[in-house]
Design a protein that fits this description.
Blueprint lengths: L4 H13 L2 E7 L1 H4 L8 E7 L5 H15 L7 E5 L5 H10 L1 E4 L2 H17 L1 H18 L1
Parallel strand pairs: 2-3
Antiparallel strand pairs: 1-2, 1-4
Pfam family, one: Polbeta
Protein name: Polymerase beta nucleotidyltransferase domain-containing protein
């Protein structure tokens, strides 16, 4: 996804105003595989915990940058206290829109390491799900 100069400036302002550490684009738009009505996936990480009112204001700011309508819904996620698999999916292909490269790569490295550390649990979960559905399907 190509950003305009205006969008880049708006993103910088949002990041600074709400003390964000990172703003990332992930999902189909970063892979350039979006379709009609694909949602636009944005992930944020604050320097401090992001609470409800701040989240609403950040979401509103992002709506002004990217839009939010029936044709392209804005999906904004907070990268705080999320599961290893989701964080890995975001960081695997995520593109940095705001923040330092160091913070981005530090989180990406953590996400990959955490994913691999949890791999045995993911495999066990898959076995149990297959066993359950094999029994009741």
């Amino acid at each position: 996804m190509k950003l305009t100069a205006k969008q880049k400036i708006q993103i910088q302002k949002i990041g600074k105003k709400y003390k964000l550490k990172l703003i990332l684009l992930y999902g189909s738009y970063v892979k350039e595989k979006q379709r009609i009505k694909s949602d636009l996936d944005i992930a944020i990480l604050g320097k401090e915990s992001i609470k409800g009112k701040s989240f609403s204001k950040i979401f509103s700011g992002m709506e002004n940058v990217f839009g939010n309508n029936e044709e392209r819904e804005l999906d904004l996620k907070i990268l705080e206290k999320i599961d290893a698999l989701f964080l890995y999916q975001v960081m695997k292909d995520g593109a940095l829109l705001y923040g330092s490269s160091f913070d981005y790569w530090e989180l990406k490295t953590y996400a990959i390491r955490n994913y691999w550390d949890n791999m045995p649990i993911f495999k066990l979960e898959e076995i149990l799900v297959n066993k359950y559905f094999g029994k009741y399907a």
